[in-house]
Amino acid sequence: MAVPLNAAKAKSRKLPTSRSSVSLKRMMSNRYLYLMLLPTVLYFLIFEYKPMYGAVIAFKDFNPFAGVAGSPWVGFKNFEKFFESYYFFRLLKNTFLMSFYSLLFIFPASLAFALLLNELRLKKLKSFLQTVSYLPHFISLIVICGMIIDFTKPGGIINSLLLGIGFITEPIQFLILPEWFRTIYVGSGMWQSLGWNSIIYLAALSGINPSLYEAAVVDGAGRWKQLTHITLPGILPTVLILLILNVGTLLNVGWDKIILLYNPGTYVTADVISTFVYRRGVMEADYSFSAAVGLFNSIINFTLLVLANRISRKTTESSLW
Amino acid sequence: MNAAKRKLALLLPVMTLLATLVSACGGTNNNAGSAAEPSASPGTQGSTSAPVEGSRSVGGLQVPIVADKLEFSLWSPSGGNFRGTNFNEKLSFQQMEENTNIHINFQHSTEASAEAFSLLMSSGKLPDIIYNDLWGTDSGKYGAKGALLPLEDLIDQYAPNFKKILDGHPDIRGQITSPEGHIYYLPNLVLDSQDLTQMFPQVRSDWLEKLGLPMPQTTEDWYNMLKAFREQDPNGNGKKDEIPLVTVNLENIMMLFAPAFGVEYGFFVDNGQVKYGPNDPRFKDVVVYLNRLYKEQLLDPNYLVDTTFQTLTEKVTTDVAGAWFGWSGSYMGNFTTLMEGKHDTFKIAAAVPPKGPNGDQRHVSFRWQAGAHGLAVSSKTAHPEEVMKWLDYQYSEEGILLNNFGVEGKSYDLVNGEPVYKDEVTHPTNGLTNTQELLNHTIGGGSWATVADTRYAEQIREANGQTENPLEIYKDYIDFDAKLPPVQFTAEENEIVVPLMADIQTYVAETINAQIMGRQSFDDYNKVMKQLEQMGIGEVLKQYQAAYERFKGK
């Protein structure tokens, strides 16, 4: 790990032009390291940066048989079509809320889960719980959605449970009631990703110097004081970075899960930008329109990312760049 | 961890993230620029018009089509009932290759999904021949983009069999011609009018008998029947678990009831005027009626969630479903076979389309002679002439027999000159249903660019114990002038219709379902119509009217 890090470090450091000959010399002396970096750089150029060229079809009337270059330019027409859509604001709101609630509930829950696991003394119990909590992450989404449909049925386990304890008197048709959709989406999302999301925190936790805890114990700090004075400050940078990254994806929702769970009864809360684009763009083979919406999404996400990063840098000195 | 290291460790994920964010919308252009290269044959290049030595005529078409074997690629979903992996496993295609000396490289997608087709078309790399369920409306669009080969001249020159059918049935030409006057696909054809009916109302007639009820004739009869199913325990298990009316989607329920109130859920024609059902004041009556069914739990309360055929089959075979709107084979025949020996009285009967309070009575689930499904040819094919000849072969008497019945002596025998399926096909002992077994032998006349042989459906139906043709009774209720024909739009019309309808369909699906479920009041249905007006239904109808009149003028 140290080798590519050094190479990257050498590259990332800003060197004044007057010292360019020095840096060239340094590059020469590290040439094998640069060579090893090359495949990664190529990967990004070929598979991540080159396809960005395809985004120009957002400004064209794309016809696959004429090719990207051969399709006529149409300016912002595809964007206008999207903004003029009767449901534009509802789609924006639904998309944002769905992501926001996921962030609001799942993000702290994963953190709390990691902290709880970290406090466990029994190593065996800890790894058992970890494994169990990762499992849902590996189940195919289509199976997950099948399970959700079965569980939320009028005769399903959730209704039976609620009826059994007398919480309700009539079964609730969860999946056709718009007011339940976000709860189901976020709730099942939490079950799916809680364990998986906690991995990165556990990794950060294990990076905290144990001698700090020993010192704290000597100073008479209890578990709670250790948590608030050592553990939390120790992983705060990681938490913030993850938060920034999450904010940067606020307009990306797991549309495949929504497609599998929504229906006209729940459009009011469940119809998001990507599901609308799916019905409108892919099914109608209107790729330019889909690309325009995707680009719009990316721009908003990118803006949010930059903003969140700036706020974080100003207030906590942790930031992506 | 010092600050510099932390930043470095994060550099990579950030780069990845940025890149994926933007590339997510650029992913559609893969290969778009590269020209398609359909499979060329190893032997002959170019076309040879001279007949092959030792050839014979099949309705005017000389076979074998070529002296040296040619290969074409053909894209087609393989369909849910086919148990093999490649259509070349079907004996009919093996025989066809022998007869025509053309080998087909089948490219299959397992699901007949619009996405799979969309992705194929967007790749810009097309096989020689492409199957699609929706060529009826899509072929003009893709043809105008230059993806498909206009076939009308090739038909005149090289397709004597298909041309003969076109000349004998003048309506068909109009049904497959694009607004610009081109033919871009060869359709599945049904030439006998009693075979045009598709789905129809089906009722558990043994339940009716048990409860002493007659077959329903009117919408009120239907209400009373469903009510009796719900309340009088026709399955006799002592529980109120009957779901009187089941469906996989609202559209089927609408096809059952909306015509009784003089409308349809989508576009229809009323005295030469194209109308949109939900935008018609009469549509309120449909909503009121369905709301009554829903409120009293006569319509499956879970109809919005249970949208797979599997869940519907489960409800029918567990003896809780009483009525539905479905196909003759996959519903009626299939359920009857599944319940054979498991239920003493299980019987399904076809009901006439219900008559509404104002005397409206119409059956709307029927197809046109030219189906929307069929085969189109890529504009990049290297052998347009041979492809056309191979397609024409599908419509020759020999080809029709192969596609409907398979290979003589293998899946059928000629009895007095008539093809009759062998017993192994109609009553397979290998655990397959006869539909599945038949698909091991041939493609099935109803789902290919060929003519559906009426004897094919008849024999399968009789093998399933249905002696009468349930489709017969709908002949009198079919009104060709009231159903919107498969009109095609010009690019400009499409430009207007698609974005407006995306919003309108969202609004209608949401509103109508909410009103049926009683979550939204339908007292003031004018509001819905006003809203549709605002969303541009008038503009959409103008385009439909123009396309319809163009169609009629053809």
Automatic annotation (TrEMBL), chain A:
Major site of localization recorded for this protein: membrane
Residue stretches making up the ABC transmembrane type-1 domain: 92-308
Provenance organism: Paenibacillus jilunlii
Keyword Manganese: no
InterPro entries the record matches: MetI-like, MetI-like_sf, UgpAE/MalFG_permease
Keyword entries, A-Z: Cell membrane, Membrane, Transmembrane, Transmembrane helix, Transport
Record protein name field: Putative aldouronate transport system permease protein
PROSITE patterns: ABC_TM1
Gene3D superfamilies from the UniProt entry: MetI-like (1.10.3720.10)
Upper classification of the organism: Bacteria, Bacillati, Bacillota, Bacilli, Bacillales
UniProtKB/TrEMBL annotation, chain B:
Domain of life: Bacteria
Compositionally biased residues, Low complexity: 31-43
Pfam families: SBP_bac_1
Region (Disordered): 31-56
Signal peptide: 1-24
Keywords: Cell membrane, Lipoprotein, Membrane, Palmitate, Signal
Classification via InterPro entries: Bact_solute-bd_prot1 (IPR050490), SBP (IPR006059)
Name the record gives this protein: ABC transporter substrate-binding protein
Organism: Paenibacillus jilunlii
Lineage: Bacteria, Bacillati, Bacillota, Bacilli, Bacillales
